[in-house]
UniProtKB/TrEMBL annotation:
One of its GO terms (molecular function) is catalytic activity. InterPro entries: Aminotrans_IV, Aminotransferase-like, BCAT-like_C, BCAT-like_N. It comes from Aspergillus nanangensis. The lineage of its organism: Eukaryota, Fungi, Dikarya, Ascomycota, Pezizomycotina. Gene3D superfamilies: 3.30.470.10, D-amino Acid Aminotransferase, subunit A, domain 2. Transmembrane segments: none annotated. This is Aminodeoxychorismate lyase. Pfam families: Aminotran_4 (PF01063).
Length: 266
């Protein structure tokens, strides 16, 4: 796997209903001072800045020096219809050229973008299936930062029988020490093991030293006190265990660990 990607990337949701949903929230509960339709926009800009610095792309760093308002105005140019929600994929190459792919995305309950909702009868019946990769992945700059070099994630999904982006399933990527790094397209959260103080969050997410990506929703969940960081061993996860997943397009999603072999690729 090459250590230099073609693009650094970040994927996020554009939703015209988001600013209205944020109106009643105090400023400290959501990190975008613009209250823009771009979900967690400051965190996506920070993620791209960190990647450009890591790969030593000065032109990309220069492009990303613009302030948040300018960045939002730049993204506005790529929205085909500002009355509809979109899945955006921001790509920046080493020359600082930025392109944005916009694809339609389905309407969702916007409360799921803010923090995990308490389970309901309907949500309990349809959690995502969460598999553990049968092979290990070696941490590198390409797992620490989100880039177009995603062969290891694609291979992990195929090994688990996930063949479609629409499949409500995820696979957890594991490092050679047996630690969960992250999901192929999400950040995972698990119930805390062992003794817990009353002030400790009930949920934990993998530490970055395990080799995963500092995702935008991960940063949001940590900042809001929903979870803490911890080393999570794949061997400690149980079949049927409930968990949470999150990413910058779908927000927070309920999941359930599946350790038995998959028999279909629905």
């Amino acid at each position: 796997m090459s250590s230099i990607p073609r693009h650094i990337i970040s994927s996020l949701r554009y939703d015209p209903s988001l600013p209205h949903s944020l109106q009643s929230l105090p400023p400290t509960s959501y990190p975008d001072p613009l209250r823009s339709p771009y979900y967690l926009l400051p965190y996506h800009q920070d993620r791209l800045r960190d990647a450009a610095k890591c790969f030593q792309w000065p032109e990309a760093q220069h492009f990303l020096q613009q302030d948040l308002t300018q960045f939002a105005q730049f993204l506005d140019k790529f929205i085909p219809d500002n009355t509809q929600p979109w899945r955006l994929r921001i790509l920046i190459d080493r020359s600082g050229t930025c392109t944005v792919e916009a694809n339609p995305t389905t309407a969702i309950d916007l409360r799921t973008l803010l923090l995990p909702l308490p389970p309901t009868h309907d949500s309990q019946s349809n959690p995502w299936r969460v598999y553990i990769d049968s092979e290990t992945t070696t941490p590198s700059a390409l797992t620490t930062h989100k880039t177009t070099a995603r062969d290891c994630y694609t291979a992990a999904r195929l090994r688990s029988g996930i063949v479609s982006p629409q499949d409500p399933a995820e696979v957890l990527v594991v490092n050679p020490s047996g630690e969960i790094m992250e999901g192929s397209i999400t950040t995972p959260y698990f119930q805390r093991r062992g003794r817990r103080q009353d002030t400790d969050p009930a949920w934990v997410t993998p530490v970055l030293t395990s080799g995963g990506n500092s995702g935008t929703t991960r940063r949001y969940a940590l900042g809001q006190g929903f979870c803490a960081e911890d080393i999570i061993l794949a061997s400690d996860l149980a079949d049927g265990e409930e968990c949470w997943l999150s990413n910058g397009v779908r927000g927070f999603i309920r999941g359930q660990v599946v350790l038995s072999a998959r028999t279909s690729t629905s």
